[in-house]
Design goal:
Two copies of one chain form a homodimer.
Chain A: E1 7-8, E2 24-30, E3 33-39, E4 42-47, E5 50-55, H1 61-69, E6 71-76, H2 82-88, H3 98-101, E7 106-107, E8 116-117, E9 122-129, H4 132-138, E10 140-150, E11 155-156, E12 159-160, E13 170-174, E14 177-186
Antiparallel strand pairs in A: 1-10, 2-3, 2-6, 4-5, 5-10, 6-9, 7-8, 9-10, 11-12, 13-14
């Protein structure tokens, strides 16, 4: 476990970690198993208590672990993790441990067993809201955010501030092609 | 009506208009009424046929028009429209026509009655998939994308290419604070 500076994000501000539409890494754990996959199809669903919606394909190993445990964590990666994010979205963790393979260090959260990924800059620990018909029909999962964290170098007092180019979050278009989060625009 | 250059986006590529997490403008129409609101809580839900998920609060005028018509359009605004996007998300169209007030010109789509907004760079014409329990419980709407368009200056062959700073799409954090879509990162 690598120690990484992180601060609590008050739950009513947790949506701001996802509001700008970054790609996420979904981590999960069940008994001795763990996995991580990339997910761009994720969004906030409510402010307080904060909820999220995320699409998790029925063929993924993550789906098994999420359904078994009823939990997952959303990790917000940076530019530095672009390759690992692409790789985590392209291979399955059923055969190999992706954390080892992709050299992704992790630390323990407070609310869920899913490991939180080092080098990310935002973390949301989530518990599934049971809506089995949604999962079956649309691969869609709704969840309540139980705890949220951020790297204070880039997220403070509810605001992102990307002072370091390497710590910018990522927006996925398709096939390993991303955009970094760009310049602030204040309307 | 202002004529704007736009090209058809093949439906299996329509998700790419939203995959990077831009803020959207949701336009709607019902009989003589029309409206537009900002929505950041929107994401792709499926590839082909393309589907989307969007949160539309029950207190909004848009909600009334969307529920009455069963349709809406998602418009992807650019940096140039940051102020209008913020304003469209901050006031209600119940009393005043926001198109007039915010000087938003529009053109007709092919599949739905909702007007499409000029100066945007991506458009998805959507028909609601009836899931009334989701709307009631979570303000969540699922919809099938019936037609999609893009401005070929910035979106061609399924790829965004932001050659012009003013035509970059926007990512909303909170309270009128956005990020422009930034540099490409190819993993």
């Amino acid at each position: 476990m690598i120690d990484q500076t992180r601060v609590d994000v008050p739950l009513p501000k947790a949506y701001r970690l996802l509001n700008h539409g970054p790609v996420t890494l979904v981590s999960s754990a069940w008994r001795e198993q763990r996995n991580v996959m990339a997910a761009a199809w994720v969004m906030p669903l409510d402010f307080d208590p904060p909820k999220v919606a995320v699409v998790i394909d029925k063929n993924t190993y993550t789906r098994e672990l999420v359904e078994a445990s009823g939990e997952f964590a959303l990790n917000v990666p940076t530019r530095r993790l672009a390759q690992a994010t692409h790789a985590a979205g392209s291979c399955s963790g059923r055969e190999h441990d992706k954390f080892t393979e992709l050299r992704l260090a992790s630390f323990s959260g407070r609310a869920v067993a899913a490991p939180l990924l080092c080098e990310c800059v935002g973390w949301l620990e989530c518990r599934i809201i049971p809506e089995p018909a949604l999962a079956t029909r649309y691969d869609l999962f709704l969840a309540e955010v139980l705890a949220a964290w951020a790297d204070p170098r880039v997220f403070r007092e509810g605001r992102w501030n990307f002072c370091d180019e390497n710590l910018r979050t990522l927006h996925h278009v398709a096939g390993g092609f991303f955009f970094a989060t760009g310049e602030p625009v204040d309307a």
